[in-house]
């Protein structure tokens, strides 16, 4: 039987707090460090590896974390989730984003349909539509092929799909699967839509409107912006737009769209990259086969996350080490540092995924918790970040745990030898050096040049950013966030924190304001 208990009531957590801390400088120096790098490693799907040698853990702490995983019933709770229990207690919903890429357990029926069949049906419809667009069977009003796809959506309808598109754009060009350029409009700031529309040929562009409810203010505002641009160009908007929405939304059966593809309430926006939300734009941009490879990579990583042995379950282990850093060591933030330009927007996606999921101060029953929950997430690609905020990471007063991601090979496989090494070798040399520099530091009598070290990090290493490895990477972090939510006993699948501002904004626009809200409205000339 599953029980949902707060972290600070668990006996294993109290034991974890008492385990002797690790001196990371000593642990990572010399032969000790070399052995840790060899041993503290877990295989992931699609040739990835999670290495936690430079984390502030040892065998005793890891054993305590394994006890915590058992007492918190992490494997059992994941099993309940993928078998269709109502895990999203705030909205009384199932949580089914895993089922968009595979069925991990029993068949799940909701809304009178088999949900795996529903998701695969939508993927098949998207694939058929994309293939017809690429073949010139679906064209603009003049019978000409579309060359650009533009996604209109905000939050999870933008951040994940945009990050995935950018991650695979150069790979697709190198591997001859690049079909259409993709652009994204998200911000209600008119400059966002105007900039995108000015950069494309609207006559040869197809627009994907993404809104589950069909009522998202920013998205519908930008849709009107796009429709005006199409009208001004003498074009019929209904021949240039498709919708990704729920079957019950006002967009579902509207004549304003060439086609509609469906999602449902069981997939949160930040978990929707493997649903129709990512499927439409990525299938149009790269072809349905590439999107299928992306799904396969995610499914393979999901399968690993079922393992009850924490040392064979990279997402669970990563999650538990993060809980240890947050709730025992007291570190308030985590930096995500991909040493790949392809992953330039991946930290922004993880920022939403993590902070919107676990940025909660009440448990799944609405009761206040007495311990920290989700960390602040930030990051940029290396080596750019090294010349930006790494100063604080190395010598600042706060210790910030680091999550590196690195690849042995570049996507374009175009390089040059400068000073006896290639650019890719220089990139990889930097990430290896940073891990050791953060962990071990460097003593210097000049305090300004002294590095205390003891700054923990982990790294996910892969061969190359490709559709399969990207899917596995995405699923790893989705499952990590899920497991941490289970440990903290919070609901990782609602986001009430985004609602209050929306409600007040509507009051401002209706001129129903008073007090400070009225004064700010006046200052902004609303």
Automatic annotation (TrEMBL):
Name of the protein described by the UniProt record: Glucose-6-phosphate isomerase
User: Which reaction(s) does its UniProt entry say it catalyses?
Assistant: alpha-D-glucose 6-phosphate = beta-D-fructose 6-phosphate
Per the record, the pathway is: Carbohydrate biosynthesis; gluconeogenesis; Carbohydrate degradation; glycolysis; D-glyceraldehyde 3-phosphate and glycerone phosphate from D-glucose: step 2/4
Q: Where in the cell is it found?
A: Cytoplasm
According to its UniProt entry, the function of this protein is described as:
Catalyzes the reversible isomerization of glucose-6-phosphate to fructose-6-phosphate.
- The record's EC number reads 5.3.1.9
What GO molecular function terms would the record report? glucose-6-phosphate isomerase activity
Could you list this entry's UniProt keywords, alphabetically sorted.
Cytoplasm, Gluconeogenesis, Glycolysis, Isomerase
Residues annotated as the enzyme's active site = 356, 387, 502
InterPro entries per the UniProt record, alphabetical: G6P_Isomerase, G6P_Isomerase_C, Phosphoglucose_isomerase_CS, SIS_dom_sf, SIS_PGI_1, SIS_PGI_2
